[in-house]
Design goal:
This protein is α/β, with parallel strands linked by helices. The protein is built from 16 helices and 14 strands. Helix 7 links the parallel strand 5 and strand 6.
């Protein structure tokens, strides 16, 4: 049978939310008022919002119906037990601590497992994860493969742990100084790149030998599973759901921002297998979030999440979700736009260094490019470069990551193929005038996670 060249989204549109295009003069005013930080723009002034895929997905009819089944009892909500069953069924973890979103779970596990002077190895940092580890007294150590820092490398599993780097850290610092290995599926800061099952199994073997747990950032685990199915030998005939379960079985616990893969607008959890750590976490969530049977969520949100977990591993859904990202990436490559290769799972990452080679990192090329994209078309993207990397705690100077990126993040089930074509046109338009673009200087910087609130002025 001849393979079809076209595809369509596996859903019908039942409700629409109108969006409006602003004028160039308006956008110039809005981005200046926002300090050239796309996080500080008002959503009403944005045409296509690619800032993040966190909490921006469209829920299904079943999830909306699930909201009406919310049991808002303070203690023992039936929605908690349905969510707990979904987590056990699809992910295999024994114990569940609900939180309002992923960073609350990161806070709890960091405070419980990390002590001052510890080292936490991981496959590239993520902003909130690293901050919670540092606030607990730990030091994050990047042990990802070198290919992850090379935007031109086409290595299919850039999320892999470099076993030599991990072994060297264990030997140098001692296993007792490593509370856990932090594994992300997929790796956001590397461009949405997956970790292979073979690599995860090798990491599991090594950590088991030294008695070191693995804590899994499972925010986009279904997307990682899909990439394993498509690219790794021996997994073509396995379902995404089966691969997700196999990934989770190789880890000891997980933090989940359910606002991504699990298709809800708010929610998260900490999932564990160790009863002692679970008991401490269940006690701690009461202090910081809410009772252990709702954490930071309403009953209706837990019900929508339980349904969303099942939908996230549906073959039709995940194929279309990642397929839309692949479509956008291929179109940008055809237009000669420099992006991170290979194409990832949750967004396209523009290589700002290659896009604006005349700007040094001190002129914030990724921040500049995100602002220019909004000026051109009202599309909101986000910086993932020197601003996100923050400052060195000892020297006070900027951290200079090898990757200086602008993330075009695709919300799930929100935009159509036509929107992807509009994005390509706008990026190409900015690229055509790239040599005339001037950089930015930072004029306000908050203490933590500066990329959210920092302000800039044009040079």
């Amino acid at each position: 049978m001849k393979k079809r060249k076209t595809w369509a989204e596996p859903y019908k549109i039942k409700m629409v939310e109108p969006v409006f295009m602003t004028t160039k003069a308006q956008r110039k005013k809005y981005i200046k008022e926002a300090g050239y930080n796309t996080f500080l723009l008002r959503s009403k002034d944005v045409y296509i919002d690619l800032l993040t895929d966190s909490g921006t997905s469209a829920m299904s009819d079943r999830q909306w119906a699930g909201l009406m089944m919310g049991d808002e009892a303070y203690a023992g909500s039936r929605n908690f037990y349905e969510l707990e069953e979904a987590v056990r069924h699809y992910y295999g973890y024994k114990y569940l601590v609900p939180t309002h979103q992923g960073r609350a779970a990161e806070h709890i596990i960091s405070q419980l497992m990390i002590k001052k002077g510890d080292y936490v190895p991981g496959n590239m940092y993520f902003t909130t994860t690293r901050l919670h580890q540092e606030l607990a007294g730990g030091t994050f150590v990047d042990v990802i493969v070198d290919e992850a820092h090379d935007s031109e490398s086409t290595f299919p599993f850039k999320g892999n742990i470099d076993l030599k780097k991990l072994k060297a850290l264990i030997k140098k610092k001692g296993a007792d100084k490593i509370p856990y290995v932090s594994i992300a599926t997929t790796v956001n800061m590397a461009g949405g790149q997956p970790i292979s099952m073979a690599n995860l199994k090798a990491v599991r073997k090594l950590t088991k030998k030294h008695g070191i747990p693995i804590i899994h950032d499972m925010t986009r685990v279904a997307e990682n599973a899909f990439m394993i199915q498509q690219k790794e030998k021996g997994y073509k005939k396995k379902t995404v759901a089966q691969i997700v379960k196999e990934i989770c079985d190789l880890t000891d616990g997980a933090t989940m921002s359910a606002k991504k893969d699990a298709l809800v607008n708010i929610g998260g959890f900490l999932a564990l297998n160790d009863p002692e750590i679970f008991d401490k976490a269940r006690n701690m969530v009461v202090v910081y979030e809410g009772l252990h049977t709702y954490g930071g969520m309403a009953g209706r949100d837990m019900q929508a999440l339980a349904i969303g977990i099942g939908e996230s591993v549906s073959c039709d859904h995940i194929r279309a979700r990642v397929g839309q990202v692949q479509y956008l990436g291929e179109k940008l490559l055809e237009a000669g736009i420099p992006i991170v290769k290979p194409i990832g799972t949750h967004g396209i990452f523009l290589d700002a260094k290659a896009f604006l080679p005349h700007l040094s990192q001190d002129e914030f090329p990724a921040q500049t490019l995100a602002a220019e994209l909004y000026l051109d078309s009202g599309i909101r993207a986000m910086e993932r470069g020197v601003v996100s990397a923050g400052r060195n705690k000892k020297t006070g100077k900027h951290n200079y990551p090898k990757l200086e990126l602008v993330r075009l993040t695709i919300p799930r089930r929100v935009y159509t193929q036509a929107h992807m074509d509009v994005i390509v046109d706008s990026v190409a338009s900015v690229y055509a005038k790239r040599n005339k673009i001037k950089g930015l200087k930072m004029v306000y910087e908050p203490d933590y996670l500066r990329f959210f609130q920092a302000r800039f002025e044009k040079l």
